[in-house]
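Friendly challenge for the regulars: who can give me the structure tokens for this chain first? No prize, just bragging rights.
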Amino acid sequence: MKLKIALAVVIILPALALAVAGLVSKRASVRYVSAAQGRMPAATAERVPVLVELFTSEGCSSCPPADELLTTLEQMQPVEGAEVIALSEHVDYWNRLGWTDPYSSSEFSARQNDYARVFETDEVYTPQMVVDGRSQFVGSNSAEARNAIAAASRDPKAKVAVSLASEDARTASITLELRAERPREISESDSAAVLLAITESGLRSSVSRGENAGRRLNHTAVVRKLMTLGVLDSQAGASFVNSPLVRIDKSWKRDNLRAVVFVQELTSRRVLGAASVSLGKQ
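First reply, four minutes later:
Bragging rights claimed.
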């Protein structure tokens, strides 16, 4: 079945096995932290952050292989020289077909439609993987994912740093410290937004209806919150510095949360830099 624009899915492609193991209010001063801190195994060379987005749904029978691939890319980091920073964005247009995805949001459906405009396609579909906002393909295609990630790791990147500054147990909130350099690569007449995503891994669902009825699904890097912190334009000279406050919902498991900060052009949707940090209790 193929559903165009509002409801679309591609035919399942087999997920190829990956066998290579590798390696959110007050303003505060910024402490510089490696984008890979607390995440990557020791490596002989610095890895370049690459943002990998997966548009998916629990109502889509083609999506579980893509969810598994995203998990492998995020946990195993199999692409030499690249640090995969994952975002799993559950769209809501599948909800009317029998199963309401508990992680879905119209916000992610709108974001996917923004990409459709940039990629000049008259379709949106699941599963769809987007790498650094520059390339898109069927989300279960392992070979294409690895090639796109490797290519993205060779592009110039803006330096982005994020760290956990403080927390308040009474209000279940944390304060982050972040800095994003003004990218040299902002397209003329374009601007770039600095966005913050809070993701949660280790999520599971037992699906009772829809195309995945009877299946137990596992998810990695599910976006729980996505917000824009500010905008950089091509003429600005200063770095972006912010100390956002993030409230931790009681339904989220703190040790499975990460904060992802990335810089993305508003028109072209190119991702110019990214970083992430674990929000687990220190």
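Residues 1-44 have pLDDT under 50 and may be disordered. The longest strand covers residues 222-233. Your move, everyone else.
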